[in-house]
Write a structure and sequence with these properties.
The chain is an alpha/beta fold. Helices cover 45% and strands 17% of the residues. The chain has helices at 21-37, 41-48, 96-112, 133-147, 166-180, 201-219, 236-247, 270-280, 294-298, 337-345, 353-356, 359-373, 379-404, 408-427; strands spanning 52-61, 67-78, 84-91, 118-125, 156-160, 228-232, 251-257, 260-263, 290-292, 304-307, 326-328, 349-351. Bound molecules: nicotinamide-adenine-dinucleotide (NAD).
Length: 431
């Protein structure tokens, strides 16, 4: 796969490269599911390709007075079920191929949850950690202006992703609104509550991960109270998932971050862990807890493992040592395909990422609905709706898994691809 060159000196390689690892595996997954669903070859071919790719060169005035140019993308995969939806990320290694794969995954994620959106993703290749707040704002506003005709409340609705946040979305919304001449709140989700954002968005993904873990436990005849949980990653998703599941009566015995992890057989005091991480930058070396490595965290003896850090953590090398009975994937792509085969053999029940971590996009959808209807719902209402939808989706996937005798990951793809294909067949082919 060709990656971007240094974004600092603004030299870029050609990005029109097919077949990055992540894009290739997204296409392979689609092909496997298409066989199960016996889909028409032409339809599968159109699902393999994004409907539209927008590539722009974004000039930004830097604080030192120089102008630098960064390559940005918006990839729109499929809109058969509704307007495009997906995050915008800023990262030096953003590549067109990865954005294409992530846009396709958004199509499936929305379809699994039965949310009336299609899939999109965007990104700008830039050394964002070196940017001042002003540089980040100027990049965001110029990028937004350059893609303004391709996004919109009924067209394509961006959201935060890696190194973009609520403030970034406020800048996107303001820029779009200035260009269009009206305040278009529904053009983005994940924006600040002060300008139309929805309460409950921050904890939504962690909450959904826990709902899926609880449903999986119920299905497998396990009790939550007193059960043991290990959580990889103590960021937005991992922290909230750990806090919520502990609040419901489970014992979180291990957590980790990029530096390593900690373990306590009696259960960790998560607020003390959060405070310690805030003070020292890591969860490690907390008084009263044993310091462990990330590898040890993944292979901790526990009932539930929540991988909430990043992709490719559970691999062919360590999957055989996983001792949890249930996994609910908070991160995107934490399990490699070869690890999946091993987990299947060990009869570990895995709730796949496109289902387990869809709480965020679900609350984004609720934010969009509130904006469109000029309504505001309470956090309790949103949480109730989210819980019902996650439980419904879990059971839809479980049913498909029984019907086709496949694991939950394959079942989630069968359900999602089947829903998108059904919409495409009904729409027919224009002209
Ligand atoms: P974050 O940056 O807030 O947190 C990531 C955490 O993982 C940090 O604590 C970091 O130290 C830790 N980490 C990084 N590398 C690690 C490693 N090798 N081992 C252990 N810990 C490691 O990010 P987040 O928003 O919590 O996202 C985490 C994952 O969930 C990502 O894969 C993201 O794509 C996915 N996700 C997030 C959301 C959301 O709403 N935030 C929604 C869907 C999916």
């Amino acid at each position: 796969m060709i990656r971007l060159g240094s974004a600092r000196d603004t030299r870029y390689e050609s990005l029109m490269v097919e077949n990055s690892e992540i894009y290739q595996s997204a296409v392979e997954q689609l092909e496997r599911v298409a066989k199960i669903l016996k889909l028409d070859g032409g339809l599968v071919e159109s699902l393999k390709h994004p409907r539209k790719i927008i590539q722009v060169a974004v000039p930004v005035k830097m604080d030192d007075g120089s102008t630098k140019v960064f390559v940005g993308y918006r990839v729109q995969h499929n809109f058969a079920r509704g307007p495009y939806k997906g995050g915008i990320r800023y990262h030096p290694e953003v590549s067109l191929d990865d954005v294409k794969a992530l846009a396709m995954l958004m199509t499936w994620k929305c379809a699994v949850l039965n949310i009336p959106f299609g899939g999109a993703k965007g990104g700008v290749a830039c050394p964002i950690k070196e940017f001042s707040e002003g540089e980040k704002e100027r990049l965001t506003r110029r990028f937004t202006a350059m893609i303004a005709d391709d996004i919109g409340p009924d067209k394509d609705i961006p959201a935060p992703d890696m190194y973009t946040d609520a403030q970034t979305m406020a800048w996107v919304m303001d820029t779009y609104s200035m260009l269009k001449g009206y305040m278009a709140q529904a053009v983005v989700t994940g924006k600040p509550v002060e300008c139309g954002g929805s309460p409950g968005r921050t904890a939504a993904t962690g909450f959904g991960v826990v709902v899926c873990a609880l449903e999986a436990m119920k299905h497998n005849g396990m009790k939550l109270t007193g059960s043991t949980v290990a959580v990889q990653g103590f960021g937005n998703v991992g922290y909230h998932a750990a806090r919520i599941i502990a609040g419901l009566g489970a014992k979180v015995v291990a957590v980790s971050d990029s530096k390593g992890g900690i373990y306590s057989a009696d259960g960790l005091d998560l607020e003390a862990v959060a405070k310690h991480k805030e003070d020292t930058g890591t969860v490690q070396n907390l008084r009263g807890a044993k310091t462990i490595s990330n590898e040890e965290l993944l292979t901790t003896r526990c009932d539930v493992l929540l991988p909430c850090a990043m992709e490719n953590q559970i691999t062919g090398k360590n999957a055989a040592n996983i001792k949890a009975a249930i996994m609910s994937e908070g991160a995107n792509g934490p399990t490699t395909p070869d690890a999946d085969v091993i987990l299947d053999k060990k009869k570990i029940f895995v709730v796949p990422d496109i289902l387990a971590n869809a709480g965020g996009v679900t609350v984004s959808y609720y934010e969009w609905v509130q904006n469109q209807q000029r309504e505001s719902w309470t956090e309790a209402e949103i949480r109730k709706k989210l819980e019902e939808r996650m439980i419904g989706a879990f059971n839809d996937v479980l049913e498909v898994s029984k019907k086709h005798n496949v694991n939950m990951r394959s079942a989630a793809y069968v359900l999602a691809v089947g829903r998108v294909a059904a919409a495409m067949k009904k729409l027919g082919l224009f002209p």
